[in-house]
Amino acid sequence: xxxxxxxxxxxxxxxxxxxxxxxxxxxxxxxxxxxxxxxxxxxxxxxxxxxxxxxxxxxxxxxxxxxxxxxxxxxxxxxxxxxxxxxxxxxxxxxxxxxxxxxxxxxxxxxxxxxxxxxxxxxxxxxxxxxxxxxxxxxxxxxxxxxxxxxxxxxxxxxxxxxxxxxxxxxxxxxxxxxxxxxxxxxxxxxxxxxxxxxxxxxxxxxxxxxxxxxxxxxxxxxxxxxxxxxxxxxxxxxxxxxxxxxx
Length: 248
Known about the structure:
Blueprint: H1 2-13, H2 16-35, H3 49-74, H4 77-87, H5 93-127, H6 132-160, H7 162-177, H8 189-203, H9 213-247
């Protein structure tokens, strides 16, 4: 199993464009920090939970799109030909999917961790004040639901056609920019901007950071969507494996 894992991680992640996209994501994160977050969101402090949440959400959008793009390469015609060769070894399809999900999910988590660390270092060096506990809560609320959606919806669509993953990427972008006022975007950035602005208007000044029940409900919905679709993919993969076993 370790040999298959090393082989898969090599053909999925050890590509020049993957490193390039990771570097671009971190450069984009710095751009957001130095141009938008440094001014504070809705007149909040740059190191507040609101501002850091906005930063995580905006950069998470890029990391989600990058991860989905990498996932789409797993279902390309060339990759399917390689999978045929590994299937000859008798390695189960479900284990193969598990390994691929660990690789894809691991890349996404590492990418978001680097974004998190970059934000903390930036704010710590400039302002000398950060709130790691609040930041971690934001990171978990943004990252975990997105991780499950990527693995669940991404695999489900990829097994039908890799083109559908690109369509899904378009939906993610649409929700982030066209439906921004509804704060239902997968990356979660709009919540921090619009809710902090609304609370500022009501209170007449900067408001303490808070997580509203509506936002928690939205994140829970994405969590459930990810779990359900991941369960469907796992079940269908298991069924396919059993059919192939009985046909031998």
